[in-house]
Amino acid sequence: MNHVLIRPILKKTPYELLNGRKPHIGHLKIFGCKCYILTNGKDNLGKFDEKANNGIFLGHSLSNHAYRVYNKRLMTVEESVQTVFDESNNVDQGPMKFSAEEDEQNIFLKNLENCPKKQSVDSAKQPIENLQ
Question: What residue ranges do the domains of the chain occupy?
């Protein structure tokens, strides 16, 4: 199927040629995105304990319909079905940022590039305005 000669001409994948539609990829997640692993029944939770642990999405499980995630609190790789993903900050930014300071610097530089060129002003030539 990968050696179909008409595929480059029509610019379609083999799946599109066979089924007549594009594949649904809504279930795929961004690798390395932030996720929250729910701890339902895993640990005995106190009144003020967190119900989820922070984690990083590593991939999909080979044996079942679970996600492979790195649990930051336990520092282990585990498979979990009850996982909530936060892909909002990775979609627009491209590669992951390293710190908040770099984000602020990049925003400042972008705003600086978009500003119109300012002319130097000599304070001795400007008249003093009355402040009222």
Answer: 27-96
- At the second CATH level, the architecture of 27-96 is Roll (2.30)
Token pair of 71 as six digits? 């649990």
User: Which candidate, 127, 115, 96, 125, places its Cα nearest to that of 34?
Assistant: 96
What is the C-alpha separation between 99 and 91, in angstroms, rounded?
17
Would you report the helix, strand and coil content of the chain in percent, each value rounded to 5?
25, 20, 55
Structure tokens at 96: 């992951």
Question: Tens digit of pLDDT for each residue in 23-61?
Answer: 888 878 889 999 999 987 777 888 888 889 999 999 999
Q: pTM of the prediction?
A: 0.54
Q: How far apart are CA 120 and CA 104, in angstroms?
A: 26
Please provide residue 64's backbone torsions phi and psi, each rounded to the nearest 5 degrees.
-145, -175
E strand residue ranges, 12-124? 34-38, 52-60, 67-71, 76-80, 83-86
Say whether 116 sits in a helix, a strand or coil: coil
